[in-house]
Structures are given as structure tokens and as C-alpha cells.
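Deliverable D5.2: sample structural annotation.
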Amino acid sequence: MTVSLELRGLARSYVKDNETFYAVDNVSLTVAPGEFLTFLGPSGCGKTTTLRMIAGFETPTGGAILVDGKDMTTVPANERNMGFVFQNYALFPHMTIFDNVAYGLRIRNVTGDELARKVREGLEMVGLAKAEHRYPNQLSGGEQQRVALARVLVLRPSILLMDEPLSNLDAKLRLHMRTEIRRIQQELQLTCLYVTHDQKEALTMSDRIMVMNHGHIEQLGTPMELYEDPATPFVADFIGQANLIPGVLAGIDEAGYAQFKVGNRILRARMGRQNAPAVGEKGLLVVRPENLRLTGEDNRVPMKIVNRLFEGDRIDYDAVIEGSGQTKPFTLAVPFLPGMTWSEPGITAEVSFIPEAGVVIRG
């Protein structure tokens, strides 16, 4: 049975060098039954601490944790019916795969045919039905991760918690395991909280993403909402690549598009829905590299090409707006087609984008 989760003003403070700092600061959110919610952010932002408080491994300094409306804040971890998949798998090397998966069931006094049935169902679910007599050191990293997942799933947790479970796998295995975890979560209709610093994992697996920064929620929304309408410069730059072009909001046209002044040019773009500047206020124009072009009639701004990199499927250009004082170049990702010519570093090009591809936010 799927359950809902609510966090109300959750906080966790520590004392370091006689000073109090908050690893998690006033985090509030509601997770719907069966939802896959990812905690995304850089190292030290508070995502793992939040997950561990939900699991009962850390004690909150403030706030409350509710599951289906019941306050679980002070309930011991072993009474919360939550499954936790660790980053390092935590398998017992001296036990067979069968015994590793059966470990939690035996603690719950499940024995005999029922135990064997549940273990085999769990291993079959993760595609390891024939591995029950092997040992962890006889499995690949991806297979060990699936055993760790099966060990949790056989307990039928109300909420599945996963702390960077794919970080020890190579790139190809990560891609495969993303798909497998999402498939199993949807098949069992589990409420799942997933911690990662990998934006690709977050974008491809999640129903919603909570972006964290310095212990608080920077933005919460669907992958598409965060990508196309970032609320802050941090979110824009952390979710994918983003060019943050400074300027001033000169006005808003009849269609609701921003008239954004960059140098002596007026560019047209979408107004940010969550954090838009006022007319006359400084702001940032967010345009993804794949949406900038070296051709086009409208929304053009002169940029000097300072570097070029051939990536096979695309050509990446680094460019600057001369006189703007920018600290790092903007990036253009131009799809490569056989026979096309490329622009040389040193030239100034009229770089353009369609209005729908840009969004104006406060800087």
C-alpha cells in the first residue's frame, strides 16, 4: 500500500568550533503516495541528512515527519517500516545472496517456505533469480546493487529511501540501473525518496525534484518545470548547463514576453513564473547552450567566439559579449551535420534564440 509523507519545518543543527550551523534548515514538503521524489544538490547541501532524519537514523533539531498523517518524528527507525538502500550496498560477504536477501525477513521471524518464496520473488524482481547460491564477491557492482535493493523490497516497506545508490557504478551500468529502479518503483507503486548529485539521474527518474542548497529548498517541481523555468540562478546553473546573461527588464509586451535589454539590444523572452524581476530592475536572461544559434533574424546579440570544441554530434563554442565584464564565457551547442562549416575563434557573430527558449529571472 502506498503512503504519503509530509515534512513540516524539518531542521538539523550541529555545533562546530563552538558555532551552531544548520545542515537542514526549515524544510517543508508533501510527497504524494507512489511518488518518486529526488533530492538533488551539491555535496554538503543537506540532502542525505534530510533522508537520514526521515529514516530515523538522525534526530531532528526541529520540525516534524508525518507518514499518512501520523507523526513519526520520535518513532525508532526499526518501527517506521521504511527501506533504506545505502551507497555502499552493505552486503554480508560471508553469506550467500539468498541469505543476504533473507536477513531482514529472518529478523522479522519469517521462516520456512514463506521465507524462500519471498526471497525468490525479490531476486526475480531484480533479475537475479539464478544467483541465490552465489556470494557477493562473485557478482558485478550492478548485480550487488540489485541484491541490496532486493533485500529491502522483500520487506515491503511503506517508503523506499535511496542514498546515491548508483555512485559506485560505471556510466553504462548507471544508465541500466536507472531504468531498473524506476521500473520496479512503478511496478510496486512505492513512495520513493532518492538522493543524488547527478542531474541526469534526477531528470530521467523523477516525478519531482527538490533542489537543495545550503540546507534549504531552492526549488521543488517536475524535471521539465525546473529545466524550463528555474526560480534562481543556482537552479538554472545546476540543472543542465545554462547561460546567465545579465541585463535590465525594459518592459513586458502585450503577449506577456519580457523586453530584456542587454547592452544596446532589446531581446524578447519568457517571463519567469516564480522569480521575475520588476520593470526597470536588473535580472538574468537564462538560455540553454542548445538553444543558442549562430544564425537567425530576431533576438540577436553580438558575441565574440573565443574557443571551439568539436564533440562529434555537436560543436561547442565559447563566446563573450565584449565589454560586459563577464567572468566566464557563454556556451553554444550547435548540432553538427556533415559538410557544415564552423566559425573560427576571434570572429564576432550575431548569436540568436527564439523567445520561447529564454526566460528572465531575478539575478
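Annotation notes: Residues 320 and 326 are 7 Å apart (CA to CA). Residues 171-188 form the longest helix (18 residues).
The annotation will be released with the project's public dataset once the embargo ends.
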